[in-house]
């Protein structure tokens, strides 16, 4: 699939928080490329740096974050772009649905005010074509009585409705890259499907590339072309979705998939990964998963695993991935 | 549901909540929108009532009523036999300690200027424990939800979404509540941490005889925790019964669809629902689901289906559930509003 220039190329991206003496490396040495129109799913541990990675691309990290590396979007290096140019890209070419609906909606303005404002901005930016009216935007994300919703304030909508308002805003102008951070967690299965279908239609009609970050592995499995799995700030596996789900190669990916609820003899069985989630400020020298990994060997505790290619565009960071044993 | 001597922990009787929606124009009239209508259920002590349903169907509204964040427009809500909207100030104080909540949006619920150790012990102090003593409990509470000890010194913005949700859970557990209102408490967690927290919730329940109202979209999760499940559609309970039965052999066409989707193997878009979403300002006549229900007919458009028994203990509000269950009702498509 990836012919020609990638739309997004992330190279050696690092993001640190906290005191320089005791840094929290929320994203470490991330490399990632995305072709135009590609749909990428990102899953992984809670606190593994998924949101931080997305915010680094959007340049919306708090001032306290220390960022290094390169993020190229359509040939421009974003990390060194003047804020004015970045602001022009944001919303029109690059749009993001934040994980937290309440932090991105202003409680003092109606949904209608906020949506009109977004639409005005997009029109100014030349985002013609699909825009449509505020009511149409809400209808696209399957809100009941859109005319009514425009007059309501954020707290008067249900959690899932707020989430859909954000999806509506971010997709209003068909950006070239849409980053959606947990866009469907508050939705029932039926509306969730509609939102995922909306993303796919956006790709088909406008060539939008999509990065979807979610804990819902079935959403990733059904929507995305490729999937990235993160653990403790690092990408630990990346590959074609079908292959990663059929034959995951990193022990963390395997354990994650195994902890999905199963039904055995009428009972729901849950199998969390044993051990504690690692503390990013105190990571061991080797592989961050070693302490919980059933396949770990002494080398894993000593040295950080290097990238290994295990298939067509399928890479894994695990010392044992090559052996087929892990 | 036997007639025990002791009243159930929670009993909702015809609970209804209507909100006024501002007028479209300056001189227009504000219009009422019903968020919950005639909702009745009971939760025995030590049990979990799971609430599922469409986004916007009124689940959080029921939760807010139980937390006294909203007052009902009609109906009653009893906790241990006592009407929680007819309490003396002393009773109210005791009630606020007895019931704790974890919401789907943890960020708004955590004070941004408080450190984690204060956040998780705040309810203890609110109920009179001295600050030193309260904060000494923080490490234990953090460990309980799988957060490293030095997260005690961090502020909410320094946590990831899932970590914040665990803070909210730790805080709710701090005062040994009897009743927990859990509104999508694990949706923001990865599946492994989710499994950990759910296991923890179940353990706590067994150990401390806690009662849960659990709201969720993931049916496997709801089934794991719940004894009884209620299914809401557009403000009304449309099905109510033992969790296993409702989530394995659903009787209502809406629940059947939810369960089919949860099986999750169908490719995206393969089982899309026909029809259109109902308009809350002009709700459809008869059954609210008829504008999307594949089995709808003239009866459905004419009369609102009452809750009736599908099996012992299992209630369903559908005119045709027997025929649907028997596979004897043809899928003729929805009855649209215009029809
Ligand atoms: N502003 C900040 N200051 C300090 N630490 C931070 C800050 N923001 C995030 N972190 C830390 O960085 C790590 C990564 O956080 P991030 O929000 O990217 O995780 P995530 O993968 O999105 O998790 P989730 O699935 O729970 O949303 C976490 O350990 C978090 O505590
Ligand atoms: N304060 C309010 N003012 C007006 N309408 C409200 C208010 N709170 C809730 N509503 C309306 O009540 C209905 C039910 O909302 P509720 O939050 O209970 O849904 P929900 O089932 O929890 O949905 P979700 O799964 O998306 O969280 C929605 O139509 C919502 O817009
Ligand atoms: S068959 Fe009729 S009553 Fe039953 S859910 Fe469908 S529309 Fe409602
Ligand atoms: Mg996140
Ligand atoms: Mg809700």
Can you walk me through this structure?
The complex is a heterodimer of chains A (326) and B (339). By secondary structure, chain A is of the alpha/beta class. Chain A has a single domain (8-93, 175-323), classed as 3-Layer(aba) Sandwich (Rossmann fold), CATH 3.40.50.300. Helix content of chain A is 32%, strand content 24%. Chain A is built from twelve helices and 14 strands. In chain A, the strands form three sheets. Chain A has an eight-stranded mixed beta sheet with strand order 6-7-8-3-9-10-14-13, with helices on both faces. Chain A has a four-stranded antiparallel beta sheet with strand order 2-1-4-5, with helices on one face. The mean pLDDT of chain A is 91. Chain B is α/β, with parallel strands linked by helices and 339 residues long. Chain B has two domains: 10-248, 3-Layer(aba) Sandwich (Rossmann fold), CATH 3.40.50.300; 251-339, no CATH class. Helices cover 32% and strands 22% of the residues of chain B. Chain B contains 13 helices and twelve strands. Chain B has helices spanning 59-66, 89-98, 106-109, 116-126, 131-136, 138-144, 161-173, 191-208, 219-225, 243-248, 253-262, 298-302, 321-325; strands spanning 10-21, 31-43, 48-53, 74-79, 82-83, 99-102, 179-183, 211-215, 228-233, 236-242, 308-311, 314-316. In chain B, the strands form two sheets. In chain B, strands 6-7-8-3-9-10-12-11 form an eight-stranded mixed beta sheet, sandwiched between helices. The model of chain B has no long low-confidence stretch (mean pLDDT 89). At the A-B interface, helix 3, helix 7, helix 8 and helix 9 of A face helix 7, helix 8, helix 9 and helix 11 of B. Residues 50-51, 99, 181 of chain A line the site of one magnesium ion (MG).
């Amino acid at each position: 699939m990836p012919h020609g220039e990638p739309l997004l190329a992330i190279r050696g991206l690092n993001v640190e928080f906290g005191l320089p003496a005791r840094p929290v490396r929320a994203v470490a040495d991330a490399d990632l490329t995305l072709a135009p129109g590609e749909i990428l799913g990102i899953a992984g541990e809670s606190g593994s740096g998924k949101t931080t990675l997305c915010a680094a691309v959007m340049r919306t990290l708090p001032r306290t974050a220390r960022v290094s590396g390169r993020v190229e979007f359509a040939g421009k290096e974003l990390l060194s772009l003047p804020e004015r140019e970045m602001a022009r890209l944001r919303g029109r070419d690059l749009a993001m649905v934040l994980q937290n609906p309440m932090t991105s909606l202003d409680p003092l303005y109606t949904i209608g005010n906020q949506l009109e404002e977004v639409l005005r901005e997009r029109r100014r930016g030349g985002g013609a074509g699909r825009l449509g009216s505020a009511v149409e935007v809400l209808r696209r994300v399957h809100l009941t009585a859109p005319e009514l919703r425009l007059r309501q304030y954020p707290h008067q909508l249900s959690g899932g409705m707020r989430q859909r308002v954000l999806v509506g805003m971010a997709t209003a102008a068909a950006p070239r890259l849409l980053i959606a951070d947990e866009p469907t967690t508050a939705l029932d299965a039926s509306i969730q499907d509609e939102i995922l279908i909306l993303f796919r239609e956006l790709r088909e009609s406008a060539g939008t590339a999509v990065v979807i970050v979610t804990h819902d592995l079935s959403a990733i499995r059904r929507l995305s072309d490729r999937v990235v799995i993160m653990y403790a700030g690092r990408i630990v596996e990346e590959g074609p979705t079908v292959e990663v789900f059929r034959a995951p190669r990193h022990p963390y990916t395997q354990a994650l998939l195994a902890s999905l609820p199963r039904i055995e003899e009428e009972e729901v069985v849950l199998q969390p990964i044993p051990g504690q989630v690692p503390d990013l400020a105190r990571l061991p020298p080797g592989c961050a998963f070693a302490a919980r990994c059933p396949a770990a060997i002494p080398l894993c505790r000593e040295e950080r695993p290097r990238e290994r290619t295990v298939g067509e565009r399928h890479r894994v960071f695990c010392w044992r991935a090559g052996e087929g044993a892990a | 549901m036997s007639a025990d001597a002791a009243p159930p922990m929670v009993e909702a009787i015809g609970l209804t909540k209507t909100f006024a929606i501002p007028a479209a124009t300056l001189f227009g009239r504000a219009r009422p929108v019903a968020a919950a209508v005639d909702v009745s259920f009971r939760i025995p002590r030590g049990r979990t009532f799971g609430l599922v349903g469409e986004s916007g169907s009124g689940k959080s509204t029921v939760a807010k009523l139980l937390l006294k964040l909203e007052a009902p427009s009609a109906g009653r809500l009893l906790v241990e036999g006592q009407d929680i909207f007819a309490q003396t100030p002393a009773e109210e104080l005791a009630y606020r300690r007895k019931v704790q909540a974890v919401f789907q949006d943890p960020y708004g619920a955590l004070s941004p200027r408080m450190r984690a150790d204060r956040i998780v012990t705040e309810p203890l102090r609110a109920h009179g424990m001295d600050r030193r003593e309260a904060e000494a409990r923080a490490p234990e509470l953090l460990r309980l939800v799988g957060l490293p000890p030095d997260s005690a010194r961090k502020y909410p913005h320094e946590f990831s979404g899932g970590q914040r949700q665990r803070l909210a859970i730790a805080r709710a557990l701090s005062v040994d509540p009897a009743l927990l209102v859990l509104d999508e408490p694990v949706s923001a967690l990865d599946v492994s941490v989710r499994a950990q927290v759910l296991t923890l919730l179940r353990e706590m329940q067994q150990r401390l005889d806690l009662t849960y109202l659990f709201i969720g979209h993931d049916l496997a999760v709801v089934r794991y925790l719940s004894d009884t499940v209620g299914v809401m559609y557009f403000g009304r309970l449309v099905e109510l019964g033992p969790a296993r039965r409702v989530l394995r052999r659903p009787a209502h066409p809406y629940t059947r669809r939810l369960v089919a989707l949860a099986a999750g193997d169908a490719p995206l878009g393969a089982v899309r629902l026909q029809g259109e979403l109902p308009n809350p300002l002009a709700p459809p006549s008869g059954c609210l689901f008829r504008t999307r229900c594949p089995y709808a007919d003239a009866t459905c458009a004419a009369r609102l289906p009452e809750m009736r028994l599908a099996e012992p203990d299992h209630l369903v509000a559908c005119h045709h559930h027997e025929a649907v269950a028997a596979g004897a009702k043809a899928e003729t498509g929805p009855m649209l509003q215009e029809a």
